[in-house]
Amino acid sequence: MFKDVKKFITIVRGQKYIQLMQLEPRYHDGLNYLAESLHPRRQILKVTEILSINYNTKAIRFVSGNPKKELAPFRAGQYIGVKVDIDGVHTGRAFSLVSSPNNLAYYEIAVKSMGKNGFVSTHLCNDLKIGDFIEATEPLGRLYYNPIFHGNKLVFIAGGIGITPFMSMVRNIYERGLEFEVYFLFGCLTEKDLVFHEELSDMASKCENIHYYPILSEPSDSWAGERGFISNDLIRKLVGNIDGAMYYVVGPDPMLDYLREQFDSLDVPVQRITWEVNPPISDITKTIGWPHDISKEHKIKCKINWMTHGVKKTDEITVISSEPLLNSLERAKIPGLILKHACRGGECAFCRTNLIKGEYFVPQNVVIRKGDREHGFIHPCVSYPLSDIEIEVYTN
Ligand SMILES: Cc1cc2nc3c(=O)[nH]c(=O)nc-3n(C[C@H](O)[C@H](O)[C@H](O)COP(=O)(O)OP(=O)(O)OC[C@H]3O[C@@H](n4cnc5c(N)ncnc54)[C@H](O)[C@@H]3O)c2cc1C
Ligand code: FES
Protein backbone atom coordinates (compact mmCIF):
# COMPACT_ATOMS: atom_id res chain seq x y z
CA MET A 1 0.00 0.00 0.00
CA PHE A 2 2.78 2.45 1.06
CA LYS A 3 4.71 1.55 -2.11
CA ASP A 4 1.60 2.36 -4.23
CA VAL A 5 1.23 5.80 -2.61
CA LYS A 6 4.91 6.57 -3.31
CA LYS A 7 4.48 5.46 -6.92
CA PHE A 8 1.36 7.63 -7.25
CA ILE A 9 3.18 10.71 -5.89
CA THR A 10 6.08 10.16 -8.30
CA ILE A 11 3.71 9.90 -11.29
CA VAL A 12 1.79 13.08 -10.28
CA ARG A 13 5.06 14.99 -9.82
CA GLY A 14 6.26 13.76 -13.21
CA GLN A 15 3.03 14.88 -14.87
CA LYS A 16 3.29 18.32 -13.25
CA TYR A 17 6.86 18.61 -14.52
CA ILE A 18 5.81 17.64 -18.05
CA GLN A 19 2.97 20.18 -17.92
CA LEU A 20 5.38 22.91 -16.81
CA MET A 21 7.80 22.02 -19.59
CA GLN A 22 4.96 22.22 -22.13
CA LEU A 23 3.84 25.61 -20.81
CA GLU A 24 7.31 27.05 -21.07
CA PRO A 25 9.18 25.50 -23.95
CA ARG A 26 12.95 25.72 -23.57
CA TYR A 27 13.51 27.91 -26.63
CA HIS A 28 11.30 30.64 -25.12
CA ASP A 29 13.72 31.26 -22.26
CA GLY A 30 16.72 31.05 -24.55
CA LEU A 31 15.42 33.73 -26.89
CA ASN A 32 14.57 36.06 -24.04
CA TYR A 33 18.00 35.54 -22.58
CA LEU A 34 19.66 36.31 -25.91
CA ALA A 35 17.55 39.43 -26.49
CA GLU A 36 18.24 40.68 -22.97
CA SER A 37 22.00 40.05 -23.38
CA LEU A 38 22.10 41.93 -26.68
CA HIS A 39 19.76 44.75 -25.65
CA PRO A 40 19.66 45.06 -21.87
CA ARG A 41 17.32 47.80 -20.71
CA ARG A 42 20.01 48.92 -18.30
CA GLN A 43 23.51 47.86 -17.37
CA ILE A 44 25.26 48.30 -14.06
CA LEU A 45 28.92 49.20 -14.54
CA LYS A 46 31.73 49.17 -12.02
CA VAL A 47 34.61 51.62 -12.39
CA THR A 48 37.95 49.79 -12.49
CA GLU A 49 40.37 52.38 -13.89
CA ILE A 50 40.53 56.15 -14.30
CA LEU A 51 43.40 57.63 -16.27
CA SER A 52 44.13 61.27 -17.21
CA ILE A 53 44.82 61.33 -20.94
CA ASN A 54 45.40 65.08 -21.17
CA TYR A 55 44.86 68.14 -18.96
CA ASN A 56 41.02 67.99 -19.18
CA THR A 57 40.14 64.46 -20.35
CA LYS A 58 39.94 61.19 -18.48
CA ALA A 59 39.65 57.65 -19.78
CA ILE A 60 37.32 55.64 -17.55
CA ARG A 61 37.16 51.87 -17.67
CA PHE A 62 34.22 49.79 -16.47
CA VAL A 63 33.49 46.10 -16.03
CA SER A 64 30.03 44.66 -15.55
CA GLY A 65 28.81 45.51 -12.07
CA ASN A 66 26.63 42.41 -12.07
CA PRO A 67 28.76 39.22 -11.95
CA LYS A 68 25.88 37.28 -13.56
CA LYS A 69 25.67 39.58 -16.58
CA GLU A 70 28.21 40.22 -19.28
CA LEU A 71 28.57 43.61 -20.93
CA ALA A 72 26.34 43.96 -23.97
CA PRO A 73 28.17 43.68 -27.31
CA PHE A 74 28.44 46.79 -29.47
CA ARG A 75 29.61 48.03 -32.83
CA ALA A 76 32.69 50.25 -32.98
CA GLY A 77 31.38 53.83 -33.09
CA GLN A 78 28.41 53.38 -30.73
CA TYR A 79 27.82 55.16 -27.44
CA ILE A 80 26.28 54.37 -24.06
CA GLY A 81 23.99 56.68 -22.09
CA VAL A 82 25.59 57.12 -18.67
CA LYS A 83 23.13 57.90 -15.84
CA VAL A 84 24.08 59.85 -12.75
CA ASP A 85 22.52 61.44 -9.72
CA ILE A 86 24.11 64.79 -8.94
CA ASP A 87 22.74 66.38 -5.78
CA GLY A 88 19.34 64.81 -6.40
CA VAL A 89 19.25 65.64 -10.14
CA HIS A 90 18.71 62.42 -12.09
CA THR A 91 20.37 62.96 -15.43
CA GLY A 92 22.88 61.48 -17.85
CA ARG A 93 24.84 62.03 -21.03
CA ALA A 94 25.99 60.02 -24.02
CA PHE A 95 29.61 58.84 -24.20
CA SER A 96 31.06 56.95 -27.16
CA LEU A 97 32.90 53.76 -26.33
CA VAL A 98 36.60 54.06 -27.10
CA SER A 99 37.37 50.43 -26.34
CA SER A 100 37.33 47.86 -29.09
CA PRO A 101 34.23 45.67 -29.49
CA ASN A 102 36.73 42.81 -29.73
CA ASN A 103 37.27 42.93 -26.03
CA LEU A 104 34.05 42.76 -24.06
CA ALA A 105 35.78 42.24 -20.74
CA TYR A 106 35.44 46.00 -20.23
CA TYR A 107 34.03 49.21 -21.68
CA GLU A 108 36.16 52.33 -21.85
CA ILE A 109 34.97 55.89 -22.40
CA ALA A 110 36.94 59.14 -22.56
CA VAL A 111 35.29 62.13 -20.91
CA LYS A 112 36.35 65.70 -21.55
CA SER A 113 35.52 67.85 -18.53
CA MET A 114 33.61 71.00 -19.49
CA GLY A 115 34.75 72.53 -16.19
CA LYS A 116 32.41 75.10 -14.67
CA ASN A 117 30.31 75.17 -17.87
CA GLY A 118 29.64 71.45 -17.66
CA PHE A 119 27.57 69.29 -15.38
CA VAL A 120 27.82 65.53 -15.95
CA SER A 121 31.28 65.63 -17.57
CA THR A 122 32.63 67.68 -14.66
CA HIS A 123 31.04 65.32 -12.16
CA LEU A 124 32.49 62.22 -13.88
CA CYS A 125 35.97 63.72 -14.13
CA ASN A 126 36.03 65.17 -10.59
CA ASP A 127 33.94 62.85 -8.42
CA LEU A 128 33.96 59.35 -9.89
CA LYS A 129 36.18 56.87 -8.03
CA ILE A 130 37.47 53.38 -8.68
CA GLY A 131 34.95 50.91 -7.25
CA ASP A 132 31.91 53.17 -7.89
CA PHE A 133 28.87 51.69 -9.64
CA ILE A 134 26.94 53.57 -12.28
CA GLU A 135 23.99 52.79 -14.51
CA ALA A 136 24.17 52.89 -18.30
CA THR A 137 22.00 52.12 -21.30
CA GLU A 138 22.75 49.44 -23.83
CA PRO A 139 25.14 50.52 -26.64
CA LEU A 140 23.24 52.75 -29.07
CA GLY A 141 23.77 54.97 -32.09
CA ARG A 142 24.03 54.73 -35.84
CA LEU A 143 27.64 55.78 -36.36
CA TYR A 144 29.21 52.50 -37.36
CA TYR A 145 30.53 50.70 -40.38
CA ASN A 146 27.91 49.21 -42.71
CA PRO A 147 29.52 46.40 -44.76
CA ILE A 148 26.87 46.58 -47.49
CA PHE A 149 27.18 50.26 -48.37
CA HIS A 150 30.40 51.69 -46.97
CA GLY A 151 33.15 49.99 -49.00
CA ASN A 152 36.71 49.73 -47.71
CA LYS A 153 38.09 53.24 -48.01
CA LEU A 154 37.10 55.01 -44.81
CA VAL A 155 37.77 58.65 -43.93
CA PHE A 156 37.34 59.58 -40.27
CA ILE A 157 37.23 63.30 -39.46
CA ALA A 158 37.16 64.24 -35.78
CA GLY A 159 37.19 67.53 -33.94
CA GLY A 160 38.34 67.57 -30.30
CA ILE A 161 36.61 64.96 -28.16
CA GLY A 162 34.79 63.82 -31.33
CA ILE A 163 37.78 61.48 -31.64
CA THR A 164 36.17 58.91 -29.31
CA PRO A 165 34.03 56.78 -31.66
CA PHE A 166 36.95 56.60 -34.11
CA MET A 167 39.27 55.36 -31.41
CA SER A 168 37.08 52.30 -31.08
CA MET A 169 36.90 51.87 -34.86
CA VAL A 170 40.66 52.17 -35.38
CA ARG A 171 41.44 49.84 -32.46
CA ASN A 172 39.00 47.30 -33.90
CA ILE A 173 40.50 47.50 -37.40
CA TYR A 174 44.06 47.31 -36.08
CA GLU A 175 43.49 44.44 -33.64
CA ARG A 176 41.65 42.33 -36.19
CA GLY A 177 43.91 43.22 -39.11
CA LEU A 178 40.91 44.24 -41.21
CA GLU A 179 41.69 45.25 -44.76
CA PHE A 180 40.41 48.81 -44.76
CA GLU A 181 42.21 51.85 -46.08
CA VAL A 182 41.71 54.29 -43.18
CA TYR A 183 42.43 58.04 -43.31
CA PHE A 184 42.04 59.56 -39.89
CA LEU A 185 42.05 63.38 -39.77
CA PHE A 186 41.99 64.57 -36.18
CA GLY A 187 41.65 68.31 -35.64
CA CYS A 188 42.28 70.06 -32.35
CA LEU A 189 43.78 73.26 -30.99
CA THR A 190 47.24 72.63 -29.59
CA GLU A 191 49.61 69.77 -28.75
CA LYS A 192 48.23 69.60 -25.23
CA ASP A 193 44.69 68.98 -26.56
CA LEU A 194 45.75 65.79 -28.36
CA VAL A 195 44.46 62.51 -26.88
CA PHE A 196 45.46 58.93 -27.77
CA HIS A 197 48.22 60.48 -29.92
CA GLU A 198 50.97 57.96 -29.08
CA GLU A 199 48.71 54.97 -29.53
CA LEU A 200 47.37 56.22 -32.88
CA SER A 201 50.87 57.09 -34.13
CA ASP A 202 52.03 53.63 -33.07
CA MET A 203 49.17 51.82 -34.83
CA ALA A 204 49.73 53.90 -37.99
CA SER A 205 53.47 53.13 -37.96
CA LYS A 206 52.80 49.38 -37.69
CA CYS A 207 49.91 49.13 -40.13
CA GLU A 208 50.36 50.61 -43.60
CA ASN A 209 46.58 50.84 -44.16
CA ILE A 210 46.06 53.25 -41.26
CA HIS A 211 46.94 56.86 -42.09
CA TYR A 212 46.76 59.15 -39.06
CA TYR A 213 46.94 62.96 -39.44
CA PRO A 214 46.69 65.17 -36.36
CA ILE A 215 45.92 68.73 -37.52
CA LEU A 216 46.45 71.59 -35.07
CA SER A 217 44.90 75.03 -35.49
CA GLU A 218 47.13 76.73 -32.87
CA PRO A 219 50.31 74.62 -32.72
CA SER A 220 53.63 75.61 -31.22
CA ASP A 221 56.47 76.60 -33.58
CA SER A 222 58.03 73.17 -33.23
CA TRP A 223 54.96 71.29 -34.52
CA ALA A 224 55.99 69.37 -37.62
CA GLY A 225 52.53 68.09 -38.63
CA GLU A 226 49.59 69.66 -40.45
CA ARG A 227 48.32 73.09 -39.33
CA GLY A 228 45.07 75.02 -39.70
CA PHE A 229 41.50 73.80 -40.15
CA ILE A 230 40.31 70.67 -41.91
CA SER A 231 39.31 72.14 -45.27
CA ASN A 232 38.35 70.69 -48.66
CA ASP A 233 41.92 71.28 -49.89
CA LEU A 234 43.40 69.46 -46.92
CA ILE A 235 41.00 66.52 -47.32
CA ARG A 236 42.00 66.27 -50.99
CA LYS A 237 45.69 66.50 -50.15
CA LEU A 238 45.64 63.84 -47.40
CA VAL A 239 43.06 61.42 -48.77
CA GLY A 240 44.15 61.58 -52.43
CA ASN A 241 41.37 60.15 -54.56
CA ILE A 242 38.24 61.21 -52.67
CA ASP A 243 35.79 59.25 -54.84
CA GLY A 244 34.20 56.10 -53.46
CA ALA A 245 35.30 56.77 -49.88
CA MET A 246 32.91 56.74 -46.92
CA TYR A 247 33.22 59.80 -44.66
CA TYR A 248 32.40 59.86 -40.94
CA VAL A 249 32.48 63.27 -39.29
CA VAL A 250 32.19 63.90 -35.54
CA GLY A 251 32.81 67.19 -33.78
CA PRO A 252 31.29 70.32 -32.31
CA ASP A 253 28.44 72.03 -34.13
CA PRO A 254 30.45 74.98 -35.59
CA MET A 255 33.03 72.58 -37.03
CA LEU A 256 30.31 70.48 -38.63
CA ASP A 257 28.70 73.58 -40.18
CA TYR A 258 32.06 74.55 -41.66
CA LEU A 259 32.71 71.02 -42.95
CA ARG A 260 29.27 70.84 -44.58
CA GLU A 261 30.36 73.76 -46.81
CA GLN A 262 33.70 72.10 -47.51
CA PHE A 263 32.01 68.85 -48.53
CA ASP A 264 29.64 70.77 -50.86
CA SER A 265 32.63 71.96 -52.84
CA LEU A 266 34.14 68.45 -52.88
CA ASP A 267 30.96 67.10 -54.49
CA VAL A 268 30.79 64.12 -52.11
CA PRO A 269 27.28 62.57 -52.34
CA VAL A 270 25.32 63.14 -49.09
CA GLN A 271 24.81 59.40 -48.57
CA ARG A 272 28.62 58.96 -48.42
CA ILE A 273 28.89 61.17 -45.29
CA THR A 274 27.64 60.41 -41.81
CA TRP A 275 27.60 63.13 -39.12
CA GLU A 276 27.46 63.15 -35.33
CA VAL A 277 27.45 66.29 -33.16
CA ASN A 278 29.53 66.00 -30.03
CA PRO A 279 29.69 67.90 -27.66
CA PRO A 280 26.33 69.72 -27.40
CA ILE A 281 25.59 73.30 -28.44
CA SER A 282 27.05 75.62 -25.81
CA ASP A 283 24.85 78.68 -26.50
CA ILE A 284 21.61 78.00 -28.33
CA THR A 285 20.82 81.72 -28.72
CA LYS A 286 23.77 81.98 -31.13
CA THR A 287 22.57 79.24 -33.48
CA ILE A 288 20.97 79.76 -36.88
CA GLY A 289 17.22 80.32 -36.68
CA TRP A 290 17.03 81.26 -32.98
CA PRO A 291 14.39 84.05 -32.59
CA HIS A 292 16.24 87.31 -31.86
CA ASP A 293 13.55 88.62 -29.49
CA ILE A 294 14.08 85.69 -27.04
CA SER A 295 16.99 86.42 -24.69
CA LYS A 296 19.18 83.85 -22.96
CA GLU A 297 17.44 84.50 -19.61
CA HIS A 298 13.87 84.47 -21.00
CA LYS A 299 11.68 82.64 -18.45
CA ILE A 300 8.45 80.82 -19.18
CA LYS A 301 6.00 78.48 -17.44
CA CYS A 302 5.88 74.75 -18.10
CA LYS A 303 2.85 72.70 -17.03
CA ILE A 304 3.57 68.98 -16.71
CA ASN A 305 0.84 66.35 -16.66
CA TRP A 306 2.19 62.98 -15.63
CA MET A 307 1.27 59.79 -13.86
CA THR A 308 2.88 57.89 -11.01
CA HIS A 309 1.59 54.56 -9.61
CA GLY A 310 -1.71 55.08 -11.40
CA VAL A 311 -2.21 58.58 -9.92
CA LYS A 312 -2.41 61.53 -12.30
CA LYS A 313 -0.33 64.51 -11.26
CA THR A 314 0.13 68.06 -12.48
CA ASP A 315 3.09 70.27 -11.71
CA GLU A 316 4.09 73.70 -12.90
CA ILE A 317 7.68 74.89 -13.06
CA THR A 318 9.52 77.92 -14.41
CA VAL A 319 12.07 77.15 -17.12
CA ILE A 320 14.47 79.20 -19.21
CA SER A 321 14.20 79.18 -23.00
CA SER A 322 17.92 78.72 -23.61
CA GLU A 323 18.10 75.38 -21.74
CA PRO A 324 16.86 72.09 -23.24
CA LEU A 325 13.47 71.32 -21.70
CA LEU A 326 14.77 67.95 -20.47
CA ASN A 327 17.51 69.66 -18.41
CA SER A 328 14.92 71.99 -16.84
CA LEU A 329 12.62 69.08 -15.99
CA GLU A 330 15.49 67.24 -14.31
CA ARG A 331 16.70 70.38 -12.56
CA ALA A 332 13.21 70.77 -11.00
CA LYS A 333 13.80 67.51 -9.04
CA ILE A 334 10.08 66.62 -8.93
CA PRO A 335 9.98 63.38 -6.86
CA GLY A 336 9.16 60.39 -9.08
CA LEU A 337 9.33 62.33 -12.33
CA ILE A 338 12.19 60.67 -14.22
CA LEU A 339 12.24 60.85 -17.99
CA LYS A 340 13.94 58.24 -20.14
CA HIS A 341 16.94 59.48 -22.12
CA ALA A 342 20.14 58.26 -23.78
CA CYS A 343 21.59 60.35 -26.62
CA ARG A 344 20.29 63.82 -25.64
CA GLY A 345 20.70 64.78 -29.27
CA GLY A 346 17.26 63.97 -30.71
CA GLU A 347 18.32 60.64 -32.18
CA CYS A 348 17.25 57.81 -29.85
CA ALA A 349 13.69 59.11 -29.18
CA PHE A 350 13.80 57.72 -25.61
CA CYS A 351 12.66 61.09 -24.20
CA ARG A 352 9.64 61.34 -26.55
CA THR A 353 7.00 63.52 -24.87
CA ASN A 354 3.52 64.63 -25.87
CA LEU A 355 3.25 68.38 -26.49
CA ILE A 356 -0.18 69.68 -25.56
CA LYS A 357 0.50 73.32 -26.34
CA GLY A 358 3.33 75.82 -26.69
CA GLU A 359 6.03 77.01 -29.05
CA TYR A 360 9.51 75.55 -29.03
CA PHE A 361 12.78 75.69 -30.99
CA VAL A 362 14.82 72.75 -32.32
CA PRO A 363 18.32 73.32 -33.79
CA GLN A 364 18.22 73.09 -37.56
CA ASN A 365 20.44 70.03 -38.01
CA VAL A 366 18.46 67.85 -35.60
CA VAL A 367 16.26 65.40 -37.44
CA ILE A 368 13.13 64.38 -35.51
CA ARG A 369 11.44 61.18 -36.70
CA LYS A 370 8.51 61.83 -39.05
CA GLY A 371 6.11 59.73 -36.92
CA ASP A 372 6.92 61.77 -33.81
CA ARG A 373 6.45 65.08 -35.63
CA GLU A 374 3.15 64.00 -37.13
CA HIS A 375 1.76 62.77 -33.80
CA GLY A 376 2.69 65.86 -31.78
CA PHE A 377 5.64 64.39 -29.90
CA ILE A 378 8.65 66.49 -29.01
CA HIS A 379 12.08 65.40 -27.83
CA PRO A 380 12.72 67.58 -24.75
CA CYS A 381 16.49 66.93 -24.94
CA VAL A 382 16.67 69.14 -28.08
CA SER A 383 13.55 71.29 -27.55
CA TYR A 384 13.96 74.83 -26.24
CA PRO A 385 10.61 76.28 -25.09
CA LEU A 386 9.80 79.75 -26.46
CA SER A 387 6.33 80.35 -24.99
CA ASP A 388 4.42 78.94 -22.01
CA ILE A 389 4.22 75.24 -22.64
CA GLU A 390 2.13 72.24 -21.54
CA ILE A 391 3.33 68.66 -21.87
CA GLU A 392 2.26 65.14 -21.01
CA VAL A 393 5.10 63.00 -19.70
CA TYR A 394 5.42 59.22 -19.72
CA THR A 395 7.74 58.20 -16.91
CA ASN A 396 9.80 55.01 -16.63
C1 LIG B 1 26.44 60.48 -29.39
C2 LIG B 1 27.29 61.31 -28.45
C3 LIG B 1 28.51 60.82 -28.04
C4 LIG B 1 29.30 61.56 -27.17
N1 LIG B 1 30.50 61.07 -26.79
C5 LIG B 1 31.28 61.81 -25.94
C6 LIG B 1 32.55 61.32 -25.52
O1 LIG B 1 32.98 60.24 -25.94
N2 LIG B 1 33.27 62.08 -24.67
C7 LIG B 1 32.81 63.29 -24.17
O2 LIG B 1 33.51 63.92 -23.38
N3 LIG B 1 31.62 63.75 -24.57
C8 LIG B 1 30.84 63.06 -25.40
N4 LIG B 1 29.61 63.54 -25.78
C9 LIG B 1 29.14 64.77 -25.15
C10 LIG B 1 28.53 64.41 -23.78
O3 LIG B 1 27.37 63.63 -23.95
C11 LIG B 1 28.11 65.63 -22.97
O4 LIG B 1 27.24 66.39 -23.74
C12 LIG B 1 29.30 66.46 -22.56
O5 LIG B 1 30.13 65.66 -21.74
C13 LIG B 1 28.88 67.69 -21.78
O6 LIG B 1 28.03 67.31 -20.73
P1 LIG B 1 27.89 68.26 -19.46
O7 LIG B 1 26.73 67.76 -18.68
O8 LIG B 1 29.15 68.41 -18.73
O9 LIG B 1 27.59 69.65 -20.12
P2 LIG B 1 26.21 70.12 -20.72
O10 LIG B 1 25.43 69.02 -21.30
O11 LIG B 1 26.44 71.34 -21.55
O12 LIG B 1 25.51 70.45 -19.37
C14 LIG B 1 25.49 71.68 -18.84
C15 LIG B 1 24.04 71.85 -18.68
O13 LIG B 1 23.62 71.05 -17.57
C16 LIG B 1 22.51 71.60 -17.03
N5 LIG B 1 22.75 71.85 -15.63
C17 LIG B 1 23.74 72.55 -15.08
N6 LIG B 1 23.61 72.57 -13.76
C18 LIG B 1 22.50 71.87 -13.47
C19 LIG B 1 21.82 71.53 -12.26
N7 LIG B 1 22.25 71.94 -11.07
N8 LIG B 1 20.72 70.79 -12.34
C20 LIG B 1 20.29 70.37 -13.52
N9 LIG B 1 20.87 70.67 -14.68
C21 LIG B 1 21.96 71.41 -14.66
C22 LIG B 1 22.26 72.91 -17.70
O14 LIG B 1 21.25 72.75 -18.67
C23 LIG B 1 23.58 73.24 -18.34
O15 LIG B 1 23.43 74.02 -19.48
C24 LIG B 1 28.83 62.82 -26.68
C25 LIG B 1 27.59 63.31 -27.09
C26 LIG B 1 26.84 62.58 -27.97
C27 LIG B 1 25.50 63.12 -28.40
S1 FES C 1 17.39 61.45 -25.26
FE1 FES C 1 17.59 60.67 -27.25
S2 FES C 1 16.07 61.79 -28.31
FE2 FES C 1 16.05 62.67 -26.37
Describe this structure in words.
With 396 residues, the chain is an alpha/beta fold. It has 3 domains: 43-136, Elongation Factor Tu (Ef-tu), domain 3; 153-277, Rossmann fold, CATH 3.40.50.80; 299-393, Ubiquitin-like (UB roll), CATH 3.10.20. It is 25% helix and 30% strand. It has helices spanning 2-23, 26-38, 120-127, 164-176, 197-206, 232-239, 253-266, 325-331, 370-374; strands at residues 43-54, 57-64, 79-86, 89-96, 107-112, 133-136, 153-159, 181-188, 210-216, 226-227, 246-251, 273-277, 299-308, 311-320, 353-357, 360-361, 377-378, 384-385, 389-393. The strands form 4 sheets. The chain has a 6-stranded antiparallel sheet. The chain is globular and about 100 Å long. Bound molecules: flavin-adenine dinucleotide and FE2/S2 (inorganic) cluster. Flavin-adenine dinucleotide is lined by residues 79, 89, 93-96, 109-112, 114, 118-122, 141, 161, 164, 276, 278-280, 323, 327, 330-331, 343, 345.
Salient structural properties:
396 residues; alpha/beta; Elongation Factor Tu (Ef-tu), domain 3; Rossmann fold; Ubiquitin-like (UB roll); 6-stranded antiparallel β-sheet; 6-stranded parallel β-sheet; 9 helices; 19 strands; 30% strand; binds flavin-adenine dinucleotide; binds FE2/S2 (inorganic) cluster
Q: Name the ligand types.
A: flavin-adenine dinucleotide, FE2/S2 (inorganic) cluster
**Number of DSSP strands?**
19
Helices and strands: which structural class? alpha/beta
Q: Regarding CATH, which class of the largest domain? A: Alpha Beta
Our estimate of the beta-strand percent is 25-35%
Shape: globular
The H-and-E topology, N to C, reads as HHEEEEEHEEHEHEEHEHEEEHEEHEEE
CATH superfamily of the largest domain: Nucleotide-binding domain of ferredoxin-NADP reductase (FNR) module
Largest sheet: 6 strands, antiparallel
Multimeric state: single chain
Average pLDDT reading = 92
Number of domains: 3
> What is the CATH T-level topology of the largest domain?
Rossmann fold
CATH architecture of the largest domain: 3-Layer(aba) Sandwich
Radius of gyration: 25 Å
Distance between the termini: 58 Å
Helix content: 25-40%
* Strand order, sheet with most strands: 4-3-6-1-2-5
Q: Supply the number of helical segments.
A: 9
Unreliable parts: none
